[in-house]
Amino acid sequence: MLATAVFCQTSFGEPKDSRADPFADPEEKSTGITNRDPEEEEPKGFVTSSEIEVEAQSGWSPELIEEDEYPSISGATDFNPMFKKPEFVWRVEAGYFAAFNAGEWGGGLFFASTTAKKWIRILDFHIQHLDGFSGSRFLAVGGLAHLTMKQGGAYLIWQSNDGTWKTKEVFHSLDGVPKTVGRAKVDRFLDPKVAKMIVIEFEYPLSSGQPIFGIDASGRVTYLGEPK
Fold first, then answer.
1. Position 35 in a domain
2. Closest listed residue to residue 200, CA positions, set 122, 149, 139
């Protein structure tokens, strides 16, 4: 049985190990998870079984831009010749993040400043979601669903004083592909210096149930229960 792996102890104890009814066979081709439409109806907030209020995101933050607004930067072919065009591009204060997806042949997250002519590789990982903490500190979330494999993770990304980008994996799952669903603040155990938690759940879970996790700006992972 595949199980979710979390690199931190959670504040409510370990996540529940749940069981699943098998779902329909996926398409033969791999997917970088369903493409998101910025114009689609915004998700609603909810309360977890641990009485944690999760506020749905209002719009995409950082800004997820349309293809016709992509910066004029050639594909990241030095990393993977299949990367001709980004799947997602986010505009941030320092420039742009771009997620490239070649399915089972690879994925990656790259960065370019507003004046750059080339993408800089940040992560060798499939990324579908990017959310920001304060300053130049972000959480990149995603994974790959291909045949029986449904796995993913979450990475803290921050810019050091010399301008280079640093990353740290803070969450890894073999039980589904994580995605961001909103934000939460839980004063009874959250460091008062941390403004918020970014909340994630699983897309394409292999198990029944839907564990909800919060990740703060330090990378601490907290199990928040399941949706009521």
1. no
2. 139
Angle 148-167-54 (CA atoms, 0-180°, nearest 5)? 70
How many C-beta atoms lie closer than 10 Å to residue 16's C-beta? 15
What is the band of 111 on the pLDDT scale with cuts at 50, 70, 90?
A: very high
**What is the pTM for the complete model shown?**
0.77
CA–CA dist 203, 223 (Å, integer): 17
Please say whether the beta carbons of 110 and 135 come within 8 A: no
The whole domain housing 159 covers: 4-26+43-225
The total of structural domains in the chain comes to: 1
pLDDT digits (tens, 9 = 90+) for 6-41: 444 334 333 333 333 333 344 444 444 444 554 455
Residues 59 and 39 sit within 8 Å (Cβ to Cβ): no
Q: Looking at the domain assignment, is residue 31 inside a domain?
A: no
One-letter amino acid at 213 equals F
Model confidence at 65: pLDDT above 80: yes
Token code pair at residue 99: 């997620």
